[in-house]
Amino acid sequence: MQLRIRGSALCVQDGKLLVVWLRDPATGTLYKLPPGGAVEKRESPWEAAQRELLEETGYRAKLEKSSEKVVEYPFVWNGQVHACRTHFFLGKIVGDARPVSCSEKEVEGTEWLPLSKLEKEWGFHKQLCAALMPIVLDADSKKPAPLRKKA
User: Fold this and answer.
1) Distance between CA 57 and CA 36 in Å, rounded?
2) Are the beta carbons of 139 and 18 closer than 8 angstroms?
């Protein structure tokens, strides 16, 4: 089994995570996962995460290289088990979404998924859920303090 090296963006905003809807061609199962994909030649995982985010969602983000979390896990897709090593990066969306340029037919849409629904959506993959939930919840808790008005 060949190892798939991937880059992925974790963009948390207002208690929600940006996810893409991916439909497994073999089972028809709809997954809601962070945007991401294979690292291409001459590309770093961070660059792949930036590119995949834009292609799959139309958004650009400032991804923090220092936030990198590498997770190795098996993933069943299209009837086959794939060994994955995904480099996840936290990021903040900059600007508005552009038209999506993704040609992958498995990508059916995007959503700002409430963090309260993540555990249910990711329950199918306990390892991935356990690795990502603390990162996403911690990122959400680090919201900037509200500005105080001068008296």
Assistant:
1) 10
2) no
pTM of the model: 0.89
Rounded-to-integer distance, Cα 73 and Cα 83, Å: 6
Give per-residue pLDDT as tens, 21-66. Answer: 999 999 999 999 999 999 999 999 999 999 999 999 999 999 999 9
The C-alpha atoms of residue 32 and residue 136 are separated, in whole angstroms, by: 14
Find where tokens 């994955």 sit.
84
Closest residue by Cα to residue 52 from 68, 66, 39, 37: 37
The region that residue 98 occupies, defined by phi over 0 for left and psi between -120 and 50 for alpha, beta otherwise, is: beta
Q: How far apart are the first and last CA of the chain?
A: 64
